[in-house]
């Protein structure tokens, strides 16, 4: 039995979210992002510049459905090479 979708925030996304991670119900990635930002406008700005890994695979299509038990990593832009 799984317990939802875990969203893990890193670097600037963690600072904006104010938490290391959060749990959401299974939904499309864009729905999860919208829900995460619904009460946090500063997080919305940061997430608009982030990359997302779904179960360690880079996601290009945010309409993808995220299943129960999956992990989304939120990665802001990083400086350097």
TrEMBL record:
InterPro entries: Beta-grasp_dom_sf, Mopterin_synth/thiamin_S_b. Gene3D superfamilies: 3.10.20.30. This is Unannotated protein. It comes from freshwater metagenome. The lineage of its organism: unclassified sequences, metagenomes, ecological metagenomes.
């Amino acid at each position: 039995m799984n317990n939802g979708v875990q969203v893990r925030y890193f670097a600037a996304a963690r600072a904006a979210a104010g938490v290391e991670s959060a749990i959401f119900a299974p939904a499309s990635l864009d729905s999860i992002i919208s829900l995460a930002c619904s009460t946090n406008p500063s997080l919305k700005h940061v997430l608009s510049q982030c990359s997302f890994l779904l179960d360690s695979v880079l996601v290009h299509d945010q309409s993808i459905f995220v299943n129960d038990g999956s992990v989304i990593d939120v990665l802001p832009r990083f400086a350097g090479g």
